[in-house]
Write a structure and sequence with these properties.
Layout lengths: L1 H6 L9 H43 L13 E3 L2 E3 L4 H26 L3 H18 L8 H29 L5 H28 L1 H4 L3 H19 L1 H6 L15 H15 L4 H31 L4 H29 L1 H20 L6 H28 L6 H15 L1 H14 L2 H6 L2 H12 L3 H8 L8
Antiparallel strand pairs: 1-2
Helix pairs in contact: 2-5, 2-6, 2-8, 3-5, 3-10, 3-15, 4-5, 4-8, 5-14, 5-15, 6-8, 6-12, 6-14, 11-14, 11-15, 11-16, 11-18, 12-13, 12-14, 13-14, 13-18
């Protein structure tokens, strides 16, 4: 620790309140920008579209429930089911990003040009998303490559973006700023998704095919992501790095060396690591509920695609208000207590899902409202609370660990869901099994001492935490 303290330089002075607010408004818009890709491309449209392209390549036409495509593609000599191809690509990107993101974080902490780094990753990802308009016919290879690039660039940009939260806000502002960013992201992603679903569902009226409507929607998500990234690029300012560990060699070698130094020193922050462990569990539960919701609604409840789309849109827009609401609650009782309360709401969500009656829309929509309320708040406050626990000058590295650990273990909840369904032949016990993740996350988070975590990291403690 002696060498590290000697290498630490004074942090840049915090700008006045007016300057901070201007930067915060610019920062919010990156949530607005990238959420278009997350909702339109990742959540709804591209996976089924890529699967249909792969099925056309393997079988000559997309499969149907009555006549499924049973032929396999050959990927690096391995037989791959066309319907599983998008899931395998997302899994491979997730695992690779768990290895790459810590190096990205270390590089960002050493860089004097963070906003250029953020924009560079964003525009590369936006270009990949826009190029999805050219994925047609049997060209599944192009789709795989673009999805790979888009996902990796998104994850890398989020590491830099989350780290900037510490630069543009004081400790007392973090919950509010993080919540507004998440809220704007849900609103922007929901609005573009609504427009794109109108295009896809109304393709006949527009005189275009379903495939063309989907490709136009994918293009719109890429253009939206790239265009709105201009707002944070122009509105944020760069700051000199602090607490840089002296390393020799190229910039990449220096970044890797700093990463290993940070990993060795992480043991000095036990409360930060305990929070990270708690986050791994309850966030895995959150992500699995989101991933499994469409399967549960269609396979267990017997509801159609239009109901699923309506529920997704409902969750998006309710989450906008939920993030803002939780930000206000956290300002009164603290973000840790607010997250703890939210985890019990998540337990109630999966228990209620177990009892949902089949083929009834209203109960599912009511549950969607409940999910939307806690979804935005849980994610926003987790980000802001974690930002209080990371040492100055190591923000991007620690947020890369936050992202990498999340991505490296995000398969556990879906595995439990799948195994329980395989054993019981029902999605009801599978969905209620996810309560374990929220209960374990609650127990671990309850053991986190936030005041100690802030002190260990050498940060200023907010008035309410």
């Amino acid at each position: 620790m002696i060498g590290r303290m000697a290498a630490t330089t004074a942090a840049a002075p915090v700008p006045d309140a007016g300057a901070r607010r201007r930067e915060q408004r610019a920062w919010y818009f990156y949530d607005w920008a990238n959420s278009a890709y997350v909702t339109t491309v990742l959540t709804v449209l591209f996976s089924p579209y890529l699967a249909s392209i792969a099925e056309t390549a393997a079988c000559g036409a997309p499969g149907t429930p009555e006549n499924p495509c049973t032929a396999n593609l050959r990927v690096l000599g391995i037989p791959v089911s066309p319907g599983s191809l998008p899931l395998y690509v997302i899994t491979a990107t997730t695992l690779l990003s768990a290895l790459v993101l810590p190096v990205v974080g270390a590089a960002a902490d050493r860089s004097r040009h963070r906003k250029q780094l953020l924009a560079g990753f964003a525009w590369a990802g936006a270009a990949a998303a826009s190029a999805m308009v050219f994925v047609t016919g049997t060209n599944w290879q192009l789709g795989v490559g673009l999805l790979f690039v888009g996902n990796l660039c998104l994850a890398s940009s989020i590491v830099v973006y989350d780290a900037l939260l510490c630069d543009i806000s004081t400790p007392d502002e973090r919950d509010r700023v993080s919540s507004r960013g998440w809220a704007l992201g849900y609103l922007g992603g929901g609005l573009l998704l609504l427009v794109n679903l109108v295009i896809v569902e109304g393709h006949g009226v527009l005189g275009i095919s379903t495939s063309t409507a989907v490709r136009i929607s994918l293009l719109s998500a890429g253009l939206w992501w790239g265009a709105f990234t201009l707002v944070p690029y122009l509105g944020l300012r760069n700051r000199p790095p602090v607490a840089v560990v002296p390393e020799r060699g190229s910039f990449v070698r220096q970044s890797v060396g700093q990463l290993f130094t940070t990993l060795r020193e992480a043991r000095a922050y036990p409360m930060t690591l305990l929070f990270l462990l708690a986050y791994l569990f309850f966030n895995d539960g959150v992500q699995t509920v989101i991933y499994a919701s469409s399967v549960y609604a269609s396979g267990q409840l017997g509801l159609g695609e239009s109901v699923l789309i309506a529920t997704i849109l409902l969750v998006q827009f309710v989450a906008f208000g939920g993030a803002l609401l939780f930000g206000r609650i956290a300002a009164r009782v603290g973000s840790r207590r607010t997250i703890l309360a939210a985890l019990w709401v998540w337990v109630a969500v999966v228990v209620a899902a177990y009892f949902l009656p089949a083929r009834q829309v209203a109960p599912l929509l009511i549950l969607g409202v409940l999910i939307g309320i806690v979804l935005g708040g849980t994610q926003a406050l987790s980000r802001s609370l974690y930002s209080q626990f990371v040492p100055r000058g190591r923000e991007a590295e620690y947020f890369s660990l936050y992202q990498a650990c999340e991505r490296g273990t995000s398969w556990l909840g879906t595995l439990v869901f799948g195994v329980v369904h395989q054993v019981t032949h029902s999605y009801r016990p599978a969905i209620i099994a996810l309560a374990v993740f929220f209960v374990v996350g609650f127990v671990l988070l309850a053991r986190v001492d936030p005041q100690r975590a802030v002190r260990d990291a050498g940060n200023e403690s907010p008035a309410v935490i």
